[in-house]
Amino acid sequence: MHQARYATVAKDLIEAIASSRYPVGGLLPTEIELCALYGVSRHTVRAAVEQLQSLGLVSRRKRIGTRVEARHPQIGYRQSIASLAELSHHLQAPVRQIRAVRQFVAAPEEAERLGLVPGEQYFCIEALHSTSAGHPLVVCASAVYAQSDYAQVIELAQAHPEQLIARLIEQHYERVIAVIDQHVQAQSLTLDQARVLSAEPGAPALCVVRHYREENGDLMAVCENLYPADRYSLVNQLRRDRMPASAAAVPPAF
Question: 249 lies in a domain?
Answer without folding.
Answer: no
